[in-house]
Amino acid sequence: MKRRNFIQNTALGGLGVVAGSTAVAGNLENTQNKTPERASTAPYQLPLVIATWNVPNATEAAYNVLNNGGSVLDAVEQGCRVEEANEQGQSVGIGGLPDRDGNVTLDACIMNSEGDYGAVVYLQNIKHPISVARKVMEETPHVIMAGSGAEKFALSQGFERENLLTEASEKAWKAWLIEAKYKPIINIENHDTIGMLAVDSAGNIAGGCTTSGLAYKMAGRVGDSPIIGSGLFIDNEVGGATATGLGEEVLKTVGSFLIVELMRQGRSPQEACEEAIGRIVSKNKNYKDFQVGYIAVNKKGEIGYYSIHEGFSATCYCADQNRNYPSPYFNKS
Ligand code: ASP
After folding, report:
1. pLDDT of 232 strictly over 80
2. Is 192 touching ligand 1 by the criterion CB < 6 Å?
3. What residues does 151 pair with on adjacent strands?
4. pLDDT, tens digit, 9 for 90 and up, residues 28-71
5. Which residues are identified as catalytic?
6. How many A from CA of 262 to the centre of ligand 1?
7. For residue 93, what is the DSSP state?
8. C-alpha separations of 182 from 143, 215, 223 in Å
9. Is 12's pLDDT higher than 70?
10. pTM of the model
11. Ligand 1: which of 28, 80, 193 to mutate, most ligand atoms within 8 Å of CB?
12. Is the backbone peptide bond immediately before 47 cis, with ω within 30 degrees of 0?
């Protein structure tokens, strides 16, 4: 199953969101048939890197940073940059599917072991929002910057302005426009954020989350991914969590913060991810119509991942093996 096509028939009410079902995640094919086992729930030896979806190049880049003595913050930034630069991936960075007006707008955030956080929302024309988010965290007195202000800041920091709408994504958007109706319809949704968590050998944790958001979203829409506690949360005393899927549902349950707080109370990363999904499911009669997936890690090196539906997966560079694991899921019907 391709990352972009893992959920269908999503009712997004007035959003009128329809996905380009032709969207292809390039070399990011899910290899779940080749690696059917799940990852261990016992603690892994540190360091480790875990990410949403099948992104071995990204986890490898991050792991290499750790192996070479780099920081967890550098690791997640470098890992996320791999997918942001991958034009074939239509959910992150360059090549991301645009909003319904044809604009590629990117959201990202990063969080370090000290509890600092930086984010950009609705950023256009800059390929690496994760790095701009880091600059927001390190070079400004603020934590979130949006839109043209964020772009202006990025340019002032030496980032290059470039067109992020690739030919393939423009084609998919134009195909969507043929049927596009701005009224409630049963639709097909696209979403596949890259969320990444890294733990170094001393148990320090950092995380990053980067996305082009929901394809054909309304102009101005911001999802969960750049919002602290929703798309990502790290507490170096406890662990970290990050999300992918229908951002509106993650936002409403502050999912990543919830998972970290559950781990603080003694739940394992797996139990905490399952409870956060349960929280969404219990509040939504229509949970069959949308997908959310979480990954989590704690300081001991235990990992967890869980989703509402089949099709989500996590890539873990753990115990010197870089592997993709299909996620267990709630909806067995
Ligand atoms: N969570 C993202 C959002 O709602 C979408 C995704 O996971 O691809 O913007």
Report:
1. yes
2. yes
3. none
4. 334 444 454 788 888 999 999 999 999 999 999 999 999 999 99
5. 193
6. 23
7. S
8. 34, 14, 19
9. no
10. 0.89
11. 193
12. yes
